[in-house]
From TrEMBL:
GO terms for molecular function: galactokinase activity. It catalyses: alpha-D-galactose + ATP = alpha-D-galactose 1-phosphate + ADP + H(+). InterPro entries: Galactokinase, Galactokinase_bac, Galactokinase_CS, GalKase_N, GHMP_kinase_C_dom, GHMP_kinase_C_sf, GHMP_kinase_N_dom, GHMP_knse_ATP-bd_CS. Keywords: ATP-binding, Carbohydrate metabolism, Cytoplasm, Galactose metabolism, Kinase, Magnesium, Metal-binding, Nucleotide-binding, Transferase. Pathway: Carbohydrate metabolism; galactose metabolism. Its main location: cytoplasm. Its EC number is 2.7.1.6. Pfam families: GalKase_gal_bdg, GHMP_kinases_C, GHMP_kinases_N. Mg(2+) binds at S131, E163. This is Galactokinase. It is found in: Cytoplasm.
Length: 388
């Protein structure tokens, strides 16, 4: 299937630019199983890659010109000069690929220009990392075409820099690393402090289970203020507690740490979420690694949702409705996933219960007057790769 997609994207590239591309690459979106907002606190995360992916047909150029086109956005080919690229100058979709080129050059890599045609099946604004997929596919293509020799985690760091500085969104490193480094059939246990990682087998089908993604259709954007406010609150908490990052507050010392925060109620809630969330990731990893029944992770996902809703305060009525309805209809676990304020929830379910849960959630949305959600099964898929 990937090959057919690659051929289609390559054919469109040839129409646009009058020659065949030098290659075609893909990078996936992700869902996060557990470990939310921990990545900018040097903590733990556990995403896996979706089958949905951004695909890029790319040729290198030597003349300092970057040409960009997307099948998913109205408009023609955008033409930019590499020497003119500068942070936050561009507020269009082109900021994502152009930001990657900017970050590579700023880091001293000799990228001399490119023609790029992009096409993505990752739903945008759904909390499934459509931006990171775009960044990583461009970074991987340029890495190969200019023989830069960068590893997956190094590409992820450059893509994060592009998004932080060029696009202006203060995101962590999870999404880019997931897109660059995930492997099919596995979830990625990532320590965001040093980017050490472990591929943890995650094969739900073998246990008669499924993981559903419910896209609430409530759009969100990280460059808007709430994500940045949470990040700033966490940094304040770390400063008040005298640690480099909230990762350094041991779970066993949480009560003592919270009592040291005096009347900083808001910060206290943020700290409690981050410290307990890191501990939840560790519990999920050890359960999955033990080879015991995967159903045991269900209650931990539910705890994580409650913490995001009540302490971190980034859920919304649609996400809560998915979680409550799925659990009432027999789901083993459910939680919001990604940055929050809309986007998607995940639901862990026994295979025979999937249809009833999907129906119940869809009906609950209709009753509440919400837009019909989009429900699909997420199978842990491959990370970024060359297709053609
Ligand atoms: C978004 C960000 F891009 C990630 O870095 C991460 O913080 C996530 O929200 C929350 O876990 O996807």
């Amino acid at each position: 299937m990937s090959e057919a997609v690659a051929e289609t994207v390559a054919a469109r590239f040839s129409e646009l630019y009058g020659a065949e591309p030098h290659g075609v690459w893909a990078a996936p979106g992700r869902v996060n199983l557990i470990g939310e907002h921990t990545d900018y606190n040097d903590g733990f995360v556990m995403p896996f890659a979706l089958p949905h992916m951004a695909v890029a047909a790319v040729s290198r150029r030597e003349d300092g010109v970057l040409r960009l086109h997307s099948a998913d956005v109205e408009g023609g080919v955008a033409e930019l000069r590499l020497d003119d690229l500068s942070p936050e100058s561009d507020k269009n979709w082109t900021a994502y690929p152009a930001g990657v080129v900017w970050a590579l050059r700023e880091a001293g890599h000799a990228v001399t220009g490119a023609d790029i045609h992009l096409s993505s099946t990752v739903p945008s604004g759904a909390g499934l990392s459509s931006s990171a997929a775009l960044e990583v596919v461009v970074a991987l293509a340029l890495n190969d075409l200019f023989s830069l020799g960068l590893r997956g985690w190094q590409l992820a760091r450059l893509c994060q820099r592009a998004e932080n500085v060029y696009v202006g969104a203060p995101v962590g490193i999870m999404d880019q690393t997931a897109s660059a480094c995930c492997e099919a059939g596995h979830a990625l246990f990532l320590d965001t402090r040093d980017l050490s990682q472990k591929q943890v087998p995650f094969d739900l089908a073998a246990e008669g289970m499924r993981l559903l993604v419910v896209d609430t259709q409530v759009k969100h954007s990280h460059s808007e203020g709430e994500y940045g406010k949470r990040r700033a609150g966490c940094e304040k908490g770390a400063a008040l507690l005298g640690v480099n990052a909230l990762r350094d507050v041991p779970y066993d010392d949480l009560d003592a740490a919270l009592s040291r925060l005096g009347d900083e109620e808001e910060v206290r809630r943020l700290v409690r979420h981050i410290v307990t969330e890191n501990e939840r990731v560790e519990r999920v990893v050890s359960l999955l690694e033990s080879g015991d029944d995967t159903r045991a992770i269900g209650p931990i996902l539910v705890e994580g949702h409650a913490s995001l809703r009540d302490d971190f305060r980034i859920s919304c009525p649609e996400l809560d409705l998915v979680v409550d309805t799925a659990l009432a209809s027999g789901a083993v676990g459910a939680r919001m996933t990604g940055g929050g304020f809309g986007g998607s929830a995940i639901v862990l379910a026994e295979e025979p219960d999937v249809d009833a849960i999907t129906k119940a959630v869809t009906e609950a949305f209709a009753t509440a007057g919400f837009t019909t959600p989009r429900v699909f099964e997420a199978v842990p898929s491959a990370g970024a790769r060359s297709l053609l």
